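4.2 Preliminary Data

To establish feasibility before requesting continued support, the project team ran the inverse folding procedure on a target of 439 residues. The structure was first converted into the token representation described in Section 3, and no sequence information of any kind was made available to the design step. The complete token record follows.
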């Protein structure tokens, strides 16, 4: 993908709307604008009303046009933004005519790729742009907005400069000092690495909530047939999403409902009741239940019998719930059981609170900075492991300065990869492709 040419794309979705925006970026952006407007002159950053015409001089639409001169634009290149009437055929025409005058259609994320290549954004900011566009809650939007403004980059850059300082000291030792590292220096180095580790661990741990905010959580409602799983899902949804009947084994396919809890999109999944299947359709349903249980962040284990058996999962948190409390059934003898009536909508609010607590999302703060992509998380884990080894080496009787410096370099490379300084092309392509055309 050459950054030497000029690209054009719609910046708003295709459809009928008040206005639609077409964006042009690259060295020919202003000459294409001149051709589109019959040679008119435009001042930078001033919205100006002008007709857009095709090659034959036919007026296509009356638009509002703004131009941004390099480097003060989103991409860092010369940029033109054309706001036309919001009709998809007009947008197509403007793009086609821009191409007649020398532009080419942009690929997904190509404007942001240019912003990245021109040093306008680092890779965590690019990911924040993508997350901001796809965000499903105002809490997540606020968190991503902070990252876009540099909150995460600032923390990562501080780790980076501390690592460079440490490496400088070690490499000085290796080059000029014949002496073994003194125990005083050793203590100083260990303390510095420990400090770095604290920040890195905090970032590593922030991924749990950052991931939930950004991608959501899956909560699976499971239990024996007829205990009221589908009724509970309908209560949570506030509408009759799933079929409810007195016949055990009614639900076969999973039924999903998404709710926003503490800014996290939580997908509640109703499942086929767990028992020895009576026919092949029910067997397929039970198989689906077992599969989705493996992907759950949390399980709601539902029974309608105080002595009923609950699901025990080795790795997933489980909330145990006794349904049909309106039937005056005796209380469960076990501790920590939530009593509800899905039919009468009793205790459902309490259950939602328990879900928030169990997922830990009640602790989400829009003031905090979270890692939110798997790419960031796996690189910070590499950094953490290298710093951990470095601390171990620094604490030994005779410090192997060369090995120590090697581990610090691994940690530094990991931070550079997060920021996009040394990121492989295939990973970059993946990040930019997650953005839409026109962004
Ligand atoms: N009294 C009472 N009845 C309930 C309650 N919740 C569900 N039921 C009834 O229990 C029966 C089964 O409810 P479902 O929601 O279909 O149960 P399910 O667990 O989804 O059943 P399967 O899909 O067969 O696994 C229906 O007749 C519901 O009306 C409740 O809180 N109180
Ligand atoms: Mg059901």
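Position-by-position output of the design step:
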């Amino acid at each position: 993908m050459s950054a030497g040419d000029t690209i054009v794309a719609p910046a708003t979705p295709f459809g009928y709307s008040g206005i639609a925006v077409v964006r042009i970026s690259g060295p020919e952006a202003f000459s294409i604008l001149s051709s589109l407007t019959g040679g008119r002159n435009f001042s930078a950053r001033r919205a100006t009303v002008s007709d857009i015409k095709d090659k034959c001089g036919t007026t296509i639409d009356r638009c509002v046009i703004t131009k941004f001169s390099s480097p003060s634009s989103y991409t860092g290149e010369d940029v033109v933004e054309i706001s036309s009437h919001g009709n998809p055929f007009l947008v197509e025409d403007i793009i086609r005519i821009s191409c007649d005058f020398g532009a080419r259609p942009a690929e997904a994320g190509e404007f942001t790729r240019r912003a990245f290549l021109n040093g306008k954004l680092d890779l965590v900011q690019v990911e924040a742009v993508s997350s901001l566009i796809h965000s499903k809650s105002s809490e997540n939007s606020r968190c991503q907005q902070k990252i876009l403004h540099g909150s995460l980059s600032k923390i990562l850059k501080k780790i980076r400069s501390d690592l460079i300082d440490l490496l400088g000291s070690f490499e000085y030792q290796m080059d000029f000092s014949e002496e073994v590292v003194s125990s005083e220096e050793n203590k100083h180095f260990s303390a510095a690495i420990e400090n770095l580790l604290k920040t890195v661990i905090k970032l590593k741990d922030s991924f749990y909530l950052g991931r939930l905010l950004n991608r959501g959580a899956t909560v699976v409602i499971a239990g024996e047939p007829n205990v009221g799983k589908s009724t509970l899902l309908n209560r949570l949804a506030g509408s009759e999403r799933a079929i409810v009947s007195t016949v055990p084994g009614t639900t076969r396919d999973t039924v999903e409902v998404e709710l926003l809890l503490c800014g996290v999109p939580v997908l509640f999944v109703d499942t086929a009741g767990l028992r020895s299947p009576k026919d092949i359709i029910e067997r397929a349903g039970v198989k689906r239940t077992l599969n989705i249980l493996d992907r759950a962040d949390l399980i709601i284990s539902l029974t309608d019998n105080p002595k009923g058996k609950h699901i025990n999962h080795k790795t997933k948190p489980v909330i145990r719930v006794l349904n049909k409390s309106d039937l005056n059934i005796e209380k469960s003898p076990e501790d920590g059981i939530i009593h509800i009536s899905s039919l009468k909508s009793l205790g459902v609010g309490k259950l939602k609170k328990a879900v928030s607590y169990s997922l830990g999302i009640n602790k989400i703060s829009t003031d905090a900075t979270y890692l939110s992509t798997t790419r960031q998380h796996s690189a910070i884990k590499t950094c953490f492991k290298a710093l951990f080894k470095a601390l171990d080496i620094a604490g030994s009787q005779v410090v192997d300065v060369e090995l120590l410096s090697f581990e610090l370099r691994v940690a530094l490379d990991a931070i550079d990869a997060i920021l996009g300084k040394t990121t492989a092309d295939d990973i970059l392509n993946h990040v930019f492709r997650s953005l839409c055309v026109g962004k």
